[in-house]
Each structure stands twice: as structure tokens, then as C-alpha cells.
Automatic annotation (TrEMBL):
<keyword id="KW-0808">Transferase</keyword>
<dbReference type="GO" id="GO:0030170">
    <property type="term" value="F:pyridoxal phosphate binding"/>
</dbReference>
<dbReference type="InterPro" id="IPR049704">
    <property type="entry name" value="Aminotrans_3_PPA_site"/>
</dbReference>
<dbReference type="InterPro" id="IPR050103">
    <property type="entry name" value="Class-III_PLP-dep_AT"/>
</dbReference>
<dbReference type="InterPro" id="IPR005814">
    <property type="entry name" value="Aminotrans_3"/>
</dbReference>
<dbReference type="GO" id="GO:0047298">
    <property type="term" value="F:(S)-3-amino-2-methylpropionate transaminase activity"/>
</dbReference>
<dbReference type="InterPro" id="IPR015424">
    <property type="entry name" value="PyrdxlP-dep_Trfase"/>
</dbReference>
<dbReference type="InterPro" id="IPR015422">
    <property type="entry name" value="PyrdxlP-dep_Trfase_small"/>
</dbReference>
<comment type="pathway">
    <text>Amino-acid degradation; 4-aminobutanoate degradation.</text>
</comment>
<dbReference type="InterPro" id="IPR015421">
    <property type="entry name" value="PyrdxlP-dep_Trfase_major"/>
</dbReference>
<keyword id="KW-0663">Pyridoxal phosphate</keyword>
<protein>
    <recommendedName>
        <fullName>(S)-3-amino-2-methylpropionate transaminase</fullName>
        <ecNumber>2.6.1.19</ecNumber>
        <ecNumber>2.6.1.22</ecNumber>
    </recommendedName>
</protein>
<dbReference type="GO" id="GO:0034386">
    <property type="term" value="F:4-aminobutyrate:2-oxoglutarate transaminase activity"/>
</dbReference>
<comment type="similarity">
    <text>Belongs to the class-III pyridoxal-phosphate-dependent aminotransferase family.</text>
</comment>
<dbReference type="GO" id="GO:0042802">
    <property type="term" value="F:identical protein binding"/>
</dbReference>
<dbReference type="Pfam" id="PF00202">
    <property type="entry name" value="Aminotran_3"/>
</dbReference>
<keyword id="KW-0032">Aminotransferase</keyword>
Length: 449
């Protein structure tokens, strides 16, 4: 079966069948929707992809975090099929469908927030979840402004692109919405030299307070929005001591704390959400936005917030045609059931242990491996020209990505300088597949450095 297979490249990439489809893509699809992989998927199972020419790839990207449960899980296929035979869609502004309610109940049970009484709404994408979270915060607080961070990625819609730090994602599409202000994220690998740990935390907290002084007074800030592990920013985790300080600042000033767990959620971190770790430390968010792996590949996202916050939102501000689609809700309920039953959180930690050990050995062996970081199975390897200068090395990463795909491993870059290899492998990867992928990546670094 494909789900148990190992990577195998049978033809030069792209193969003849894939090349024909890629030619059609070039003619029919905007070139601005880029793809660097000479792969046309024919089928996918578990953590494996087979292209139209029979080449088999181990996928360490997983739809950029969509496929924690893997491709084509048979129980999810059956759940969606069963729902499809009843009805595809019921718009919640018109009729109530029970799947939406059941999934909201489940999310209210598993999402860690500061408040124990919660409610959940559904949308279609991560960007929609973030936009709705911001609208909810503004409506509830009556305040106009939002604070985000350097390195942040929140989506490509106009508001989400404004919140996103890297302006390559928003080049030439302004003017942008007002009221979005940016503080410096604690990127510890690139922190100012010579600071102790306590001085470092103080430095980054002062950077946030500077926003209150120079951009928006705290009393005009509705929410602070933060990724527990920055995704496109380079897989940079938010330090717990900084999150605690951030929570205190929000509480002192009546500001809501929004966790963007679009990519970090659903067992990726070794807990269902990184905010579970936050809650254990006494700094849970007020609102949590999730998407990607929530429904195993069907379009769905969620915003979970304190019931009090949702009850303070004016009617008409939230909702939409496809949010909480019946097929997606059926899939999501089964995804969560499988994750809990099969303890994918523990599996995530086991995979992370194997990978981190190997990645750290590369850090010792290769001058170009500057940093290894992450939480659970959301890990990044930052490549530099040398450890002393820490100069970003995007050329090496580009070459490593190309080498890997031509040897049956799909990996992707990240980071402001495109010099980070990200690890987002489906949590259903087998031990032998994981070892095969590690061997390919190690060979790639050795060959390309």
C-alpha cells in the first residue's frame, strides 16, 4: 500500500504525464500562484504522495500543515461519504445543521482559553478565521486597533496581509487598513548580542510597550494577535516567559490576547494546541483561531472565544455562506476523534524526539546549520553561511529543496530570508518513512553545502 511505501523516483522529474499537466497549468493558472515542485499528485495515502508517473514522495510539508492526519484516511473518507448522502450544505444563517453544533461543542471542549465558558464559529480558511477574530475583538471591546509582530504571517486577504509582516505577500495592493501596529517578536537566535535571558525578555517587552507610546495608546488596542510558533516567519517559537508577560500586559490594559493557531493546532505541537502549554503556565488566550488540519483537507476554520466575548458581538458582523459546511464538519469531527483515540499528540512528541536528535547532530556536524528550534513536530532548521556571522543562506536552502524533491522528499523553506527548512510531516508517518526522509535530507545538506 502507498501509505506504507518508501520514496522512489522512477523517472526524471517531471515525468512525461506530469509535464503535460504542468504545461496546462502554465496556460490556465496565474503564474503568481507559484509552485517549485515538479510533482503532479495522482494519489496520496498517509504521509506519501504518488505522482502521475508513479514516482513516490514522502511529504514533509503536508499542505503546509493541513494533513496532520495524513492523506485519504479511510475513516474520514467514510464519514464524508456518509454525510454527502444526506446533504452537502446547510447555511447556518438560514437552517441549522447538527454537525455544526456538534463540532462547536467539541471545539468548546478541547480549545484552551482563559475562560471556561466558550463558543465557536466556523469559516473557511485561516485568513477568514483571523479576520473574524479581529472583528470579534473590536466589536466586543469597542476599540479600533490591533498589535501584531515582526515575522508574522496571518493570511493574504487585505486585512490579514496588512497584519502579515513580509510585504512580498502584499506588494502593490495598498492602501492598507488603518489601525494595525507592529512590535518586535522575540526571535532568540537573532536577539541583540550580550543580553542575559532576563534582559532579553525585558528587551522584547519594552519593544511592545514602545508601540503603546509611539503608535497606539493601550486603551485604543482591541487585541494582540500572536502565532505561538511563527510559521512563514521561520518556525520561531514564542518563549513562555514572554507569553506570560504579554498576558499580564493584556490583562492590565483590557486588551484581548488572540492566538493564531492556524498552523500550530491539532496535535502538531504534542498537545492539541500550543495554547494548552500556555494554559498550564497560566497565560491562555482569550480567542483562538484554528484551521488547516481541522478537517483533514476540507476547507474549514474556527474561531473559539469566551462566551462573554461572543455575546458582546453585534448581530450581522459575523457569519457567511459556506462557514461550517456540513461535509467539512463531518470530516473535522472524525479527525478529532481519530487524533484523540490514536493519541497523535504522543506520536507527535515521539517523531519530534527522533528528528530533533538528528537535527542537533547536523548542527554539530555542519557549519551551515545555525539553529534548530520549534515545539513538537513543528520544527525549523535555519541555514547560515557560517555560525559566527549567522548570515542567512537561502541559496543553500533552495538547492537542498531541489535535491530532496528529486530524491523523493518534499520539503519547503520558510523565514524572512527563505533560509529555514520547515518540518510539517503528517503525524501518521511510519518509522521507516521518517528514517528515509532524514537520510535524504542529510544527504542533501552534505551534497549542497
Amino acid at each position: 500500500m502507498l501509505r506504507d511505501a518508501l520514496p522512489e523516483i522512477k523517472t526524471p522529474l517531471p515525468g512525461p504525464k506530469a509535464r503535460a499537466v504542468l504545461k496546462r497549468r502554465e496556460e490556465a493558472v496565474p503564474g503568481a500562484i507559484k509552485s517549485v515542485y515538479p510533482c503532479v499528485i495522482g494519489r496520496g495515502e498517509g504521509a506519501m504522495v504518488e505522482d502521475l508517473d508513479g514516482n513516490r514522495f514522502l511529504d514533509w510539508v503536508g499542505g503546509v500543515g493541513v494533513l496532520n492526519i495524513g492523506y485519504s484516511h479511510p475513516e474520514i473518507v467514510e464519514a464524508v461519504k456518509e454525510q454527502s448522502e444526506k446533504y452537502f450544505h446547510g447555511m447556518m444563517n438560514i437552517v441549522t445543521h447538527e454537525g455544526y453544533i456538534a463540532l462547536a461543542e467539541k471545539m468548546n471542549e478541547i480549545v484552551p482559553l482563559k475562560s471556561d465558558k466558550k463558543k465557536t464559529m466556523f469559516a473557511n480558511s485561516g485568513a477568514e478565521a483571523i479576520e473574524n477574530a479581529v472583528k470579534i475583538a473590536k466589536s466586543y471591546t469597542g476599540r479600533p486597533n490591533i498589535i501584531v509582530f515582526s515575522g508574522a504571517f496571518h493570511g493574504r486577504t487585505l486585512l490579514a496581509a496588512t497584519m502579515t509582516a513580509k510585504k512580498a505577500y502584499a506588494f502593490g495592493i495598498g492602501p492598507f487598513p488603518d489601525g494595525i501596529y507592529r512590535a518586535e517578536f522575540p526571535y532568540l537566535y537573532r536577539k541583540p548580542e550580550g543580553l542575559s535571558d532576563s534582559e532579553t525578555m525585558g528587551y522584547y517587552i519594552d519593544k511592545l510597550k514602545k508601540v503603546f507610546e509611539e503608535a497606539s495608546p493601550a486603551e485604543y488596542v482591541a487585541a494582540v494577535v500572536v502565532e505561538p510558533v511563527q510559521g512563514e516567519g521561520g518556525f520561531v517559537p514564542a518563549p513562555m516567559e514572554w507569553v506570560k508577560a504579554l498576558r499580564n500586559i493584556c490583562d492590565e490594559n483590557g486588551i484581548l490576547l488572540i492566538a493564531d493557531e492556524v498552523q500550530t493546532g491539532f496535535a502538531r505541537s504534542g498537545r492539541m494546541f500550543v495554547s494548552d502549554y500556555w494554559k498550564d503556565a497560566g497565560c491562555a488566550p482569550d480567542i483562538l483561531a484554528s484551521a488547516k488540519s481541522i478537517a483533514g483537507g476540507l476547507p474549514l476554520s474556527a474561531v473559539t472565544a469566551a462566551a462573554e466575548i461572543f455575546d458582546g458581538v453585534k448581530g450581522g458582523i459575523i457569519g457567511g455562506t459556506f462557514g461550517g459546511n456540513a461535509l467539512a464538519c463531518a470530516s473535522a469531527l472524525k479527525v478529532i476523534e481519530i487524533m484523540e483515540r490514536d493519541d497523535l499528540c504522543s506520536r507527535s512528541l515521539k517523531i519530534a524526539g527522533v528528528c530533533k536528535s538528528r537535527f542537533e547532530s547536523w548542527k554539530e556536524r555542519f557549519e551551515e546549520v545555525g539553529d534548530v528550534r520549534g515545539i513538537g513536530c513543528m520544527m525549523g532548521i535555519e541555514f547560515v553561511t557560517d555560525k559566527q556571522s549567522k548570515r542567512p543562506n537561502p541559496v543553500l536552502v533552495k538547492n537542498v529543496v531541489e535535491y530532496c524533491v528529486n530524491h523523493g522528499l518534499i520539503v519547503e523553506n520558510a523565514g524572512a530570508y527563505s533560509n529555514v527548512i520547515r518540518f510539517l510531516c503528517p503525524l501518521v508517518v511510519t518509522d521507516s518513512q521518517l528514517e528515509s526522509g532524514l537520510s535524504i535530507l542529510e544527504s542533501a545538506i552534505d551534497a549542497c553545502r
